[in-house]
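Homework-ish question, so no full write-ups if that breaks the rules, but can someone show me the predicted structure for this set?
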Amino acid sequence: MRHFTSVKDIGDLNQAVEVALDVKKNPFAYSHLGKNKTMVLIFFNSSLRTRLSTQKAAMNMGMNTMVLNVNEDGWQLESELGVVMDGDKPEHLREAIPVIGSYCDIIGVRAFAKFQNKEEDYSEKILNQFIEYAGVPVISMEGATRHPLQSYADLVTIEELKTKPRPKVVLTWAPHPKALPQAVANSFVEWMRETDFELVVTHPDGYELAPEFMGDVYVEYNQKKAFEGADFIYAKNWASYTNYGKILSNDLNWTVNTEKMALTNKAKFMHCLPVRRNVVVSDEVIESPESVVVQQAYNREVTAQAVIKMILESL
Ligand code: SN0
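A: Not a homework solution, just the prediction itself:
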């Protein structure tokens, strides 16, 4: 594997799960692969899990790591070509990317959707410039449309916890005070579609995800109906795709609570975190024994390490 930006990069998913479970058991067995190699993590947006888990994963692989928070520590970077740079951005990505690439062997990049222009976000403008100009492998640490490291960890978590070969997995929209990207939801659907699991998506009218991600995945607009018999409930807010970046509903009737979880088959509760308690999910549900959010977050380290291992092996 050279770059990791979507499920398509990782090949056979059963094998990918095996690699992850192997590094989970033997985190320090492959540290020779990263010796004298450096990973740079570039953040255009905030992070807690992604920063710590990816850095830890690289260190487990024997790599040195450097982190740059572009918006706080670095120069503001221009991404448009052909602009007269007499504004507030002193440096262009076209120079910054190959410079960063010259200092390292792998780059991780986080660049969320900006919600200014749907076409621009959905063309992964920033991430693709890194792939084009870095000269080294690029790992998406959440792009504008996908969060593949998260989805890989979600898949491993479900594999660890499922009690039947074909669990019912429900992705439910939940309310949120801010307009959030579709990346986590898009990616989760994209990865689940590559499995044999039964996937149902539930959201209010107007929150349909992009057709290229949804394909023929079933949408049940009645959330309670969707929850019936579910083995996994994955909650996530996203802003509207069709009415791009807009909040169409703040309806707290969509909050995941104990009453709704009672409709499921003792479903595990999943969320990528950070999560707004008592907006997305009630205290009771997130603190219940069925909540697996911490295991899910720990699997971020595991799957980031699996990705770095696969890339180092193919250098
Ligand atoms: C991001 C998102 O894509 O939804 C990252 C999730 C891994 N989430 C947020 O930005 C949440 C911010 C908030 O204010 O709750």
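Now go work out the reasoning yourself. Hint: Residues 7-146+300-314 form a domain with the Rossmann fold fold (CATH 3.40.50.1370).
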